[in-house]
Amino acid sequence: MTGFVSKAALAAIALIASAAPAFAQTALTPAVKELAALAAKDKEMTVTWSNSTMGGQKGAKAFETGINKMFGINIKVSWAPGDSMPNVGNQVATTAQNGLPSPTDVYMGFSRNMAVLQDRNLFHTAPWASYFPDRLTNEIVEYDTYVKVVSATLGFTYNSALAPSKPEKLEDFLKPEWKGKYGTTAFGAGFDQIAAKEAWGPERTIEFAKKFSEGAVGFLRCNEMGRLSSGEFLALVTDCSGDSAREFAATKGAPLARVVAPDVPLVSYFYFAVPKNAKASNLGKLFVAFALTKEGQDVIREQTFGDLHLLPESIVKDEVAKAEKIAGKKFANGDLAWQKTNDAGNAAQQEVAKILAAGGKK
To answer: What pLDDT digit, counting tens, does each position of 44-82 carry?
Structure first.
């Protein structure tokens, strides 16, 4: 089975993308009202990430509108173009070490990024559950600091109109008809999970990578779905998450199919955290709290075509459930705490990145 986006699903996603968020009245606790009053004094905050992350400038404006409407304040959210998530995380660490303001008032990172940064004590703790008790639960907030905002499954995306065969698992790309037709990421995205004890383990993963690198013809970024739609590449293996594929299929009508790898039974996460050296830390905390409300998830879904599958209104929840049914098991949480136990998988990913680099790809 494959993860094709059905016409009905495409219509629903397109509607989500084109419609303004429906701001239902969310009950505000005394704690979040107090935080909003403090945040209003900050007046302005900056988020720094790539243009394809959270909608860039457009997404920042959507967050600004939503926060002002929900809390009855008048703040500004500015967006500054940023590098990759690991590199922005390094900038947060470097500025903190040198007593300088953080380049971003909210840092967004993948579970692996957060695990690497955790020991450096860079981010604020907060009484998150007191802001929205039914949303900012212990399942969603780790170490009172790191807040899950978007779920990510490991899989691959391919051009269903031009594919030489229908791939159902990672090893299908070793078939002769796929040689020279797929691309991958320069850093071996997802191979830390493939090499995890819950999946293939390091030895099998590295042997696969050696064969896999021989058939890959170039590097792509995770959001470069246009290069698949055009036929320049016929697949991206792996694709970081399904968000970009859902967006491109819905907005461009691209013939893209997405498959969740059934033998890598993990769900990972993208997180928000507020740097201790943020210039607008209270507003940063309010931004994060808002992101987990229904209204905030509407904004995220509108900008990214993804959301947090742990919440009841999630569209990704169904994708995870279908993948679990195919795999015949419940997926494990590839969260920050899990990343701290995956040293062997993380080491294997570094080895895979070297293997891919040695494959002569540009």
So the answer is: 999 999 887 898 999 999 999 999 999 999 999 999 999
Residue 47, domain member (yes or no)? yes
Q: Which domain holds residue 182?
A: 153-267+317-357
Q: Is 14 within the bounds of a domain?
A: no
Nearest to 135 by CA among 238, 260, 50, 32: 32
Q: Please name which of 152, 85, 139, 155 lies closest in space to residue 115, comparing C-alpha atoms.
A: 85
Question: Whose CA is closest to 67, among 84, 88, 44?
Answer: 44
Amino acid at site 40: A
235 near 155, Cβ under 8 Å? Answer: no
CA dihedral 245, 226, 60, 122 (to 10 degrees): 70
Q: What distance in Å separates the CA atoms of residue 197 and residue 195, rounded to the nearest whole number?
A: 7
User: Tell me: the pLDDT tens digits for 291-305?
Assistant: 999 999 999 999 988
CA-to-CA separations, 360 to 214, 217, 231, in angstroms, rounded: 9, 9, 21
> In the chain, what are the helix, strand and coil shares in percent, each to the nearest 5?
45, 15, 40
Give the tokens for residue 32.
């979040």
